[in-house]
Amino acid sequence: MVSKILIVIFHIFLSLELQPAQSQTLIRAGYYWHAQNEFPISDINSTLFTHLICGFAQLNSTSYQLSLTPSDEKHVSTFTNAVKEKNPSITTLLAIGGQNANGSTFSSMVSNSSYRKYFIDDSIKTARRYGFLGLDFAWCTLTRSSDMLTWVFSSKSGALQLIPKQETLPIIHN
Fold first, then answer.
1. pTM flag (> 0.85)
2. Domains of the chain, with CATH numbers?
3. Three-class SS state of 170
4. For the segment 27-46, what is each residue's pLDDT rounded down to a tens digit?
């Protein structure tokens, strides 16, 4: 009798374990940076992506707010509307940093809570101003290895305090 019960329990357990997993939505992300090639935003086939990241805003070394060159601003300001023409459900993110990011400016910002607040507040305002739904931190060089840990543990709580509860603005860390 006990063996029959164990067999039934085993079969129930086995059938539970072999159920197919619920399908997960895949993220198909791509980067756009105009650089020198002047590839038009309108030529991007945004239907191929769930997320598109537009680069790059830089960190101002004195105000710790975002700065855009006139050329970058031209592309950033039209990016979200342009890619949403072909794919209205796409999520756009503004990349901050990149290869040309100043690691020492990032270190200064990370190490000072006031600078972090200026940065977080301005980053959210800038993203909203240009229609981006989130931020991508693309710092390729760090001056100190502890900077990333400091940034990860301090930025999330600081940013969440600035976003009203009814709004969402995803922040993605590289």
1. no
2. 26-173 (3.20.20.80)
3. coil
4. 899 999 887 667 899 999 99
